[in-house]
Design brief:
123 residues; mainly beta
């Protein structure tokens, strides 16, 4: 199982970034995929998750600004981040779950993780 994030970087407030996560080795058994983030000194939090059937869920702090999507043919997960704020600064991780049931935005629900990509929003 391998998940590799890319697309992080530094951007000014109000800017945009698009994160990608290339997944391999498990894709047929995944039920949910998601993006999580962890800022220095804070716990890992769910940002957005997507079920295999396409249903999505977002953290209140990113609703209307972030969009999660997946390209099943390419086994790739995306996170489009618009109107970025300094408080969005964090390491962003993609994750996949093989558990049955609704997709929860809780780190413990996910089995496989990428290594993370840094997003910094600063003027």
């Amino acid at each position: 199982v391998r998940m590799v994030e890319s697309g992080g970087g530094s951007v000014q407030p109000g800017g945009s970034l698009r994160l990608s996560c290339a997944a391999s080795g498990y894709t047929d058994s995944s039920s949910c995929m998601g993006w999580f983030r962890q800022a220095p000194g804070k716990g890992r939090e769910g940002v957005a998750v997507v079920a295999r059937d396409g249903r999505t869920s977002y953290a209140d702090s990113v609703k209307g600004r972030f969009t999660i999507s997946q390209d099943n043919a390419k086994n790739t997960l995306y996170l489009q981040m618009d109107s970025l704020k300094p408080e969005d600064t964090a390491m962003y991780y993609c994750a996949a779950s093989t558990k049955m049931g609704p997709c929860l935005a809780k780190p413990g629900y996910y089995d496989y993780w990428g290594q993370g990509t840094q997003v910094t929003v600063s003027s």
